[in-house]
Amino acid sequence: MEKRTMRFSLRTQFTLIIVALLAGMMLVSMLVNRTFLEDYYRTQKITALKKCRERLVEAAGRDEISSDDFDVELVKINNKDNIGIIVMNQDSMTIKCYGPDADTMQRRMWDNLLDLTPTKEELDAYAAGSDQAEGEEDPAGSTKEEAREFWRKNGMDAYDFCVLETVEDKDNYVLNVILDRKTAQQSLEMWGSLEDGSYFLLRAPLESVHNSSSLANSFFLRVGLVITAIGAVMAMILAGTVTRPIRELTEISTRMKKLDFSAKYEGTSRTEIADLGQNINELSETLEQTISELKAANNELRRDIRRKEEVEAMRQDFLASVTHELKTPLALIQGYAEGLQEGISDDPESRDYYCEVIVDEAGKMNRMVQKLLTLNQLEFGNNAVTMEHFDITELIRNYLSRAALLAEQNGITVSMQETGPIMVWADEFLVEEVFANYYSNACNHAAGDKVVDISFEEKEDTVRVSVFNTGSPIPSGSLPHLWEKFYKVDKARTRAYGGSGVGLSIVRAIMNLLHQEYGVINYDNGVKFWFELDTSGADPRPDESNTPENEV
Question: Within 10 A of 180 (CB to CB), how many other CB atoms are there?
Answer without folding.
Answer: 15
